[in-house]
Amino acid sequence: MALHINNVTKRFGSFTAVDDLSITINKNQIFGFLGANGAGKTTTFRMILGLIDETEGQIRWNDQKIDYSVTDSMGYLPEERGLYPKMKVKEQMIYLGRLRGMEKSSIIKALDYWLDRFKIPEYKDKKVEELSKGNQQKIQFISAVINQPKLLILDEPFSGLDPVNVELLKEAVIELKDQGTTIVFSSHQMSTVEELCESLCIMVKGKPVVQGALKDIKRQFGKKNLLVHADMDLSFLKDMLGVVKYAETAQGCRLQINDESVSQDILKELIMRDGFIKRFDLLEPSLNDIFIEKVGESYE
Length: 300
Description:
By secondary structure, the protein is α/β, with parallel strands linked by helices. The chain has helices at 41-48, 89-99, 104-117, 133-145, 163-178, 190-196, 214-221, 261-271, 287-299, and strands at 2-12, 15-26, 30-34, 56-61, 64-65, 74-77, 151-155, 182-186, 199-204, 207-213, 224-230, 243-249, 252-257, 277-283. Helices cover 34% and strands 30% of the residues. Strands 6-7-8-3-9-10 form a 6-stranded mixed β-sheet, sandwiched between helices. It has a 4-stranded antiparallel β-sheet with strand order 2-1-4-5, with helices on one face. Strand 1 (2-12) and strand 2 form a beta hairpin. The longest helix has 16 residues, at 163-178. The radius of gyration is 23 Å and the shape is globular. InterPro entries: AAA+_ATPase, ABC_transporter-like_ATP-bd, ABC_transporter-like_CS, ABC_transporter_ATP-binding, DrrA1/2-like_C, P-loop_NTPase. Belongs to the ABC transporter superfamily.
């Protein structure tokens, strides 16, 4: 079971929102979409769900076109939340679950599980408007997974959540993935994408500029990060051959170098100088580094 997006383009009049996108997302995979606002992520999600039609290309889930015959097996958390504020949580879940063909008893069972999972069982009979924004977001997430979807689309699911609730939601996403759900999500939180996703796509103005397995993307990027903590002036490092970026930190500096061999030249130079080296770490490039460079290149 896989989601296939084949040469998909979406135009609104003369404006191209998504431009020739091709991706395969397999079962039990968490796939991340990244991009600035207006990059085409939400339009892509709406096409996947069959809410809008593609102009060119095709999208297939389990080798069939997505229509009302398969949407009951899908879940969607939109970026703009859409709960009914005057309805109680239980009433709302029953309504949404019944729309997806679920029996009332199954809805209540799933709701109780997720309320306990998120440590908010006391909100079952409360109106949505009585909850904090963070807890409303948990209820919105529950509404997207109440039917145990095979394909789950999450548009900025972690936006506005405090660190504790981000962790709760991440654990829930991983649990669903382990149970066989294919998950596609977007987020501006690079560290979260890096933690959850095996594969991703960075989009700019509707076009994919980076896509593939995260480990391959990092390897192809080439550049490495070097963290140096020392009780000496490190400003001389910015002029060393192979240093691409230099940034001072409270305890030293953070460098971006174009090859890991440069780190050995830096270490030799540091040893020759007066001062104590407290930390010297060669790090993989972060997803944030890659995003900034690739998106920046696309705007030049």
